[in-house]
Each structure stands twice: as C-alpha cells, then as structure tokens.
Amino acid sequence: MSTYTKKEILDIYNKPLMDLIFEAAQVHREFHEPNKIQVSTLISIKTGGCPEDCGYCPQAARYHTDIEKNDLMPHNTVIALAKKAKNNGSSRVCMGAAWRNVKEGEDFENVLKMVEGISDLDMEVCCTLGMITESQAARLAEAGLHYYNHNLDTSEEYYKEVISTRGYDDRLKTLDNVRKGKLKVCSGGIIGMGESVEDRVGMLLSLSTLNPQPESVPINALVPVEGTPMAEEHIVPSWDVIRMIATTRIVMPKTTVRLSAGRTALNTEAQALCFMAGASSIFAGEKLLTTPNPGEDKDAEMFETLGLIPTEKKKDNTDKFKIRKSLLEKEENVKWSRPGHVIERNVEATEKAKEIRKELKY
Ligand code: SAM
Ligand code: DTB
Ligand code: SF4
After folding, report:
1. I need a labelling partner for 250 at 20 to 30 A (CA). Which of 114, 200, 265, 355 fits?
2. What is the pLDDT of residues 217-232, one digit of tens each?
3. How far is the CA of 317 from the centre of ligand 1 (A)?
4. What is the residue extent of each domain of the chain?
C-alpha cells in the first residue's frame, strides 16, 4: 500500500481547486461508479446522557442541550425503523449509541439481536457504540455486523482541545480491535471545530496510514449545537468540505467517502462538487442522530437533478448465499421464534460454521 506523507497531503489539499477536483474525480472514476451513491440511515438507539466531554457533541451529559434523552430503544422499534429506511431506498442502517464504551450485559445482548434482525432484512448494518474490545467486535461480526464506526475526529495534536475524557490512543486501540474482530472499519472526522488545515491533513495522515486503510471514511462538517462548547463556531465554508472530500478521495482511493453531517448547510451545487470530487455515500432522513439532515424528499430531488442512483446492498442475496446461510443455521442449531427472530444460536459454533461465516463475510 503506497501512502502519502503529511507534506504531500498538505500540497494536495492546497492545490488550485479546479486541479484538486479534477484529480480527485479521476481517482474516483478509476475505483468507483461516479453516478452511484450508497445511502445509509442512522438510528439513534440510545440518545444522550453520555459521560464523555466531546466538545462538538449534543449528547454529552455535561452540556445543557435541547435533545430528548432515551434509554436503549426497543428491538421492535429499531426493526420497524430499519424497514422504513429500506423502503425509502437505504441499503444500510447505522445504529448509534451515546456510550463511552460497550459494556457486557443486557444492552449489548439486545444490540446483537438488533444487528441480527436488520441483517435478516437483507440490509447492511453498521454500529457506532463507543470503545469496544476485540471479543465484542468479534461477537458483533458474528451477529452479522458489517462495519463499525469510530472516528478519529481530528489530528492527534488537536484532539486534546476537543476531548479530555479519552485520548487518541484509545481511539486507535478500538480501531485495532475492530479490525482484529473481522469487522470493516469506518473512521473519519469533523471539520469546522476551529482546527487548522494542518490538523485536517494530520487526521487524513493518521487514517490513510492505517494498514489496511479504512473501508469507509465519514467527513462531517460541524453542526454547531446550542449548549455545547462549539455552539459559536462558524459554519465551515462549502469549499473546505469539497477540498476535504477531494483530498480524502486521493489519499484513500478505494474507500467509501461519506459526505456526512452538515449537509443542510450545503446547497445542491456544493454537494454536486463533493460527489464529483469523490463522495460516494450520504446519510438519508430528516435527522442524523440528533441534528437535522435534508430529508428524503430533498435528496430525491437532488438525485434526480444530478442523475445519481442509490446503490443497492452488495449482491449477496443470491441463491448460493441463501443455501450457505441455511447450512450455517443448521450448523449453529439456530432456533427461530418467527422469521427474522433468532431465539437461540449455538455460540460454540463448529469449525464448519466459522468457515461458512468467513466465506459469506456474514
Ligand atoms: N459515542 C460514540 C462515539 O463517540 O464513537 C458514537 C456516537 S458519536 C455521536 C458519532 C460521531 O458523530 C462522532 O465521532 C462525531 O464525529 C460525530 N458528531 C457528533 N456530533 C457532531 C456534530 N455536532 N457535528 C458533526 N459531527 C458530529
Ligand atoms: C459519522 O461520522 N457521522 C454520523 C455517523 N458517523 C454516526 C453521525 C453524525 C452525528 C451528527 C450529530 C448528531 O446528529 O447528533
Ligand atoms: Fe459521547 Fe460519542 Fe457524543 Fe462523545 S461523540 S459525547 S462519546 S456520544
């Protein structure tokens, strides 16, 4: 894997904008279908009351923000929201929980069942639950999780200005656990938090030198929220979002670049330049986790205007997949209460079952 130095990434970021977009678009077209956009829907399965002090986050308990706090959402509600998301064209659901880390116990067991339930809807599943251990990552993978999101957020140097309750090393350790647990890595960050261009580039250096590089990199523009320490930050100029997306695309050619939080501040023209420059995914719906997002109607209009097509879930819904999956269920003695609801699975899976899971990436 060839990677770029910090100086090289900085030079890319600072290119004349037309050159930067053109170069990024060339890389994008080499590895991705330029008119296809993967669409994910976020579900905030546990909202607010988080013990961490991330300066941007409305869900930190210590900031007085106007969000509705909730304990873990019931299984049926999550599945109903996932079905709705599928009907609205999403191929993936990302469940977010305002936890510092995943704790063993009832809540984690319930999250595993949610992962199974969504995966049985033939959708891809992603989670962002805070820090996790390698064995928790492995259990999520076994339940059918595809990606785990855990952002580096900014450069190692600027991290201390944003969060004091954990360090950059903690973040990197979780990413390592995610990899070892055989999950795909989704990790990116936020721009517009008062960081310098060097910090943006520092974050891209950290991400692009992970080996292997993350399969997915969300680029968020800060959504300043009343009550958080970053409430008074200015909305980041759209040019910075476009530069950041383009640079990400060039230094991580194969990754899915997600144009994430902050789209309500971008008009269709600015988003079009982001897609041109390599963004290949968005979050759909009226709400991200707690903050506003453009909503399905607006996005449908934008897709129509730009001739973009939402991608479907990667084709594993083949007969071969179904046959192998039913064999796997036999191997693991899976018992169902009704379709989609596993009530028992032999966790001491046989070697054969493990092999099939590996083969199916399931
Ligand atoms: N608690 C988990 C964690 O921190 O990893 C998962 C949830 S957390 C809300 C997921 C990500 O949302 C953060 O890492 C951050 O990048 C992004 N985020 C949170 N608040 C944001 C805001 N106001 N604007 C933009 N992005 C934000
Ligand atoms: C990511 O990088 N952005 C998404 C997803 N990963 C989980 C979350 C954005 C959250 C924005 C603030 C909010 O809505 O609370
Ligand atoms: Fe908690 Fe995650 Fe928000 Fe930080 S970003 S306060 S860890 S929910």
Report:
1. 265
2. 999 999 999 999 999 9
3. 32
4. 6-310, 317-360
Tokens of 143: 């339940």
Q: Which amino acid is at 273?
A: L
What is the C-alpha R_g of the chain?
20
Spacing, Cα 21 to ligand 2 middle (Å): 25
**6-310 CATH choice from 3.20.20.70, 3.40.30.10, 3.30.750.200, 3.30.565.10:** 3.20.20.70
261 lines ligand 2 (CB under 6 A): yes
pLDDT tens digits, residue range 130-186? Answer: 999 999 999 999 999 999 999 999 999 999 999 999 999 999 999 999 999 999 999
Token pair of 156, please? 């190692």
274 carries an active-site annotation: no
* Exposure of 270 in the CB half-sphere (CA atoms within 13 A): 17
Name 222's Cβ contacts closer than 8 Å, sequence gap at least 6. 56, 190, 191, 192, 193, 230, 233, 235, 236, 261, 262
Residue 246 alpha carbon to ligand 3 centre in Å? 27
Closest atom of ligand 3 to 166 CA is 7
